Amino acid sequence: MTIFGLDTRDNRGDGLQIYSGTAVNVTVKKSVFRRNQAAGSAYGLNIQTTGNVLLDSVNVTGNDYGARVNTSEGTISMLGTYFKNEVYGHGSNTALDLQAKGNVSLTKLDVKDSGDSYIQSSNGSVTLNTVNIMNNTSTFWVLAKAGATFNKVVSLYNGIGSYADGILVTLNGGLAGFTDCAFHGNSGNGIEIDYNYDAGPSAPRPTLIRTSYFGNDSDLSGGDPDLYYHY
């Protein structure tokens, strides 16, 4: 199933809702989902399938909630072929809820002015490339079975008036690596890595290449380091 050039605005319900109990691959390209609201429960984009899902150049803004994608057997990919993906303006509600059994790969994405985000691969890896995470009230949370890779990820000023790490990574296997990233001005930790398995006698330090992380714990609680990795 391919959807191209859809523009759904001001609906009293989800902007786009796709439910499939079979292995249907879903592609959404060059589409806008804006100001879809229904008593605080509407998603701009809501996809549930057992196949692979590709989002390419989507704008999800000003809905009750942002985008929810759940594939119990497939992968989730995001590209920015036509324009940058944008998910913002959802108050303190969830911006992204992306859950896949296979790999999750997100490219050219801005997530801002919303609540939390939850990115999970239950049996694969998570990759973020050219992603900006800004001014959200809660943490951007990544969970992966086979490691997580972050390239050109910038996370700034999250948790103003609340608590938010720049990024929280929970690993059920594999390691985390950061290249050309920046984490600053978040109210919680800049980078937190939670090893949910035995990766050795001590928690491994993540790979950090040309990555900066300082000026976090912006609420001055005194208990949130810029880099925190632990079992």
What is the helix content? under 10%
Strand content: over 45%
Q: How many β-strand runs?
A: 22
Number of helices: 0
Secondary structure class reads: mainly beta
Oligomer: single chain
Would you mind describing this structure in some detail?
This protein is mostly beta strands and 231 residues long. It has one domain (2-230). The chain has strands spanning 2-4, 7-9, 16-19, 26-34, 43-49, 53-61, 65-71, 76-79, 85-88, 96-100, 104-112, 117-121, 126-134, 140-144, 148-156, 167-171, 176-179, 182-184, 191-195, 207-209, 212-214, 227-230. The strands form two sheets. Strands 1, 2, 4, 6, 8, 9, 11, 13, 15, 17, 18, 20 and 21 form a 13-stranded parallel beta sheet that branches. It has a nine-stranded parallel beta sheet with strand order 3-5-7-10-12-14-16-19-22, with no helix packed on it. 43% of the residues are buried.
Please outline the helices and strands.
Layout: E1 2-4, E2 7-9, E3 16-19, E4 26-34, E5 43-49, E6 53-61, E7 65-71, E8 76-79, E9 85-88, E10 96-100, E11 104-112, E12 117-121, E13 126-134, E14 140-144, E15 148-156, E16 167-171, E17 176-179, E18 182-184, E19 191-195, E20 207-209, E21 212-214, E22 227-230
Parallel strand pairs: 1-4, 2-4, 3-5, 4-6, 5-7, 6-8, 6-9, 7-10, 8-11, 9-11, 10-12, 11-13, 12-14, 13-15, 14-16, 15-17, 15-18, 16-19, 17-20, 18-21, 19-22
What descriptive keywords fit this protein?
13-stranded parallel beta sheet, mainly beta, 9-stranded parallel beta sheet, 231 residues, 22 strands
